[in-house]
């Protein structure tokens, strides 16, 4: 299914945050007519929110009753509602309960503290209060995912404290219930579990992981759509369309272009040999025919992919192309795609192996990254075995 930008006001085709379009099915007749949102679970997961939240939001905004059946993943809005109307309403939910109000990016975690909803942004570090006047807010405060809360409270007190480097769970036996930090712990872990996310280590700040250091957050703020210009805001630009977006737009508008024309445009924009341009290049010149087109594009790839950082960004572009843009057509072809790059000597062995170690949300959602790398496992195993054989020959 084609993906759309989480922020639909951002036209940038390379915007990193994607979700499925809502799909609906109208059932019943007369007074019993209802609209089933058939992919609410998937869309909600992509927004890192429980599906009950946007479903209830529809009821609040449209003034109608809703049915939330988490067990069977069935989410219903009474009445006949067109998909595009619900999509417009979902934009309102995203703006109020997903986007950071400081940087306008959707990397937020909901924290419930003293009866208020706080939006903790993992992109810029801001913590803003949600609109508590909205009818959905009491529902969120009173209805965290029940099983997640139950599982958390069953954990041994010491284990919870060790995992979070804080004190006891305020809701566990022996807790006094007055520690504000305990509310944070519960809310954050509930939110992560509800969205199907795994708790991550705060260590391993290497290049493939999400670096949460102050410098890294500042750098990501420069790269994200903080000024409404998409995912590639530049240090040297104070507004408007930046050079990477210009390059991407030019590629899409002039597809197919010759290698020389692409190289000339990259030079004109000053992006040739820049790692960000490699991701844009992959998504701009390839489509579902990438397996046959890769050898034809060897010249332009070698001009762009000039160092290890560029190699990693190229793999990031492949992840987006395979995992988002043409998932149905290309996911199972990822070993062949990587092999073609290998044969062209575009990516080095150790970069492949480092990339394949674990999922990363650097270029796509973690679940998308996981799916791509799992599909790439046969190729990665082959590279690893070839490396081992080479090492053994050198030692002999």
Radius of gyration of CA atoms, rounded to a whole number:
23 Å
What is the CATH T-level topology of the largest domain? Serine Threonine Protein Phosphatase 5, Tetratricopeptide repeat
CATH top-level class of the largest domain:
Mainly Alpha
Uncertain regions: pLDDT < 50 for 5+ in a row? 145-214, 216-241
Structural class: alpha+beta
Proportion in β-strands: 5-15%
Number of domains: 2
How is this structure best described in words?
Strand 3 (24-27) and strand 4 (34-37) form a beta hairpin. The chain has two domains: 3-101, Defensin A-like (2-Layer Sandwich), CATH 3.30.30.170; 217-395, Serine Threonine Protein Phosphatase 5, Tetratricopeptide repeat (Alpha Horseshoe), CATH 1.25.40.180. The N and C termini lie far apart (51 Å). The protein has a four-stranded antiparallel beta sheet with strand order 3-4-6-5, covered by helices on one side. Helix content is 49%, strand content 10%. It has 396 residues and is α+β, with helices and mostly antiparallel strands. Helix 9 (243-253) runs antiparallel to helix 10. It contains 19 helices and nine strands. One of its GO terms (cellular component) is cytosol. It comes from Parasitella parasitica. It holds the Pfam family W2.
């Amino acid at each position: 299914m084609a993906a759309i930008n989480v922020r639909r006001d951002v036209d940038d085709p390379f915007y990193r945050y994607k979700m499925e379009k809502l799909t609906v099915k109208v059932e019943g007749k007369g007074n019993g007519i209802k609209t089933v949102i058939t992919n609410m679970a998937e869309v909600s997961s992509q927004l890192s929110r429980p599906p009950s939240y946007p479903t209830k939001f529809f009821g609040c905004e449209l003034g109608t009753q809703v049915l939330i059946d988490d067990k069977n993943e069935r989410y219903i809005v009474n009445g006949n509602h067109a998909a595009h109307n619900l999509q417009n309403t979902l934009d309102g939910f995203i703006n109020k309960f997903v986007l950071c109000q400081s940087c306008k990016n959707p990397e937020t975690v909901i924290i419930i503290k003293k009866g208020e909803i706080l939006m903790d942004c993992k992109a810029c570090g801001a913590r803003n209060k949600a609109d508590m006047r909205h009818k959905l807010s009491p529902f969120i405060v009173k209805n965290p995912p029940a099983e997640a809360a139950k599982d958390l409270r069953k954990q041994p007190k010491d284990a919870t404290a060790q995992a979070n480097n804080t004190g006891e769970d305020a809701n566990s036996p022996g807790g006094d219930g007055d520690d504000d930090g305990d509310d944070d712990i519960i809310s954050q872990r509930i939110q992560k579990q509800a969205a199907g996310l795994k708790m991550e280590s705060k260590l391993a700040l290497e290049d493939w992981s999400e670096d949460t250091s102050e410098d890294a957050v500042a750098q990501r703020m420069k790269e994200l759509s903080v000024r409404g210009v998409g995912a590639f805001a530049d240090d040297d630009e104070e507004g408007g369309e930046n050079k990477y977006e210009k390059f991407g737009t030019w590629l899409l508008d002039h597809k197919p272009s010759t290698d020389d024309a692409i190289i000339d445009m990259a030079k004109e924009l000053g992006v040739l040999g820049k790692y960000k341009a490699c991701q844009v290049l992959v998504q701009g010149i390839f489509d579902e025919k990438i397996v046959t087109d890769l050898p034809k594009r060897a010249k332009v790839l070698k001009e762009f992919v000039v160092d290890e950082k560029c190699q990693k960004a190229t793999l990031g572009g492949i992840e987006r192309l395979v995992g988002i843009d043409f998932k149905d057509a290309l996911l199972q072809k990822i070993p062949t795609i990587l092999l073609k790059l290998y044969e062209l000597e575009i990516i080095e062995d150790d970069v492949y192996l480092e990339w394949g170690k674990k999922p990363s949300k650097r270029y796509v959602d973690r679940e998308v990254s996981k799916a791509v790398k799992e599909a790439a496992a046969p190729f990665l195993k082959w590279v690893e075995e070839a490396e081992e054989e080479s090492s053994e020959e050198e030692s002999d």
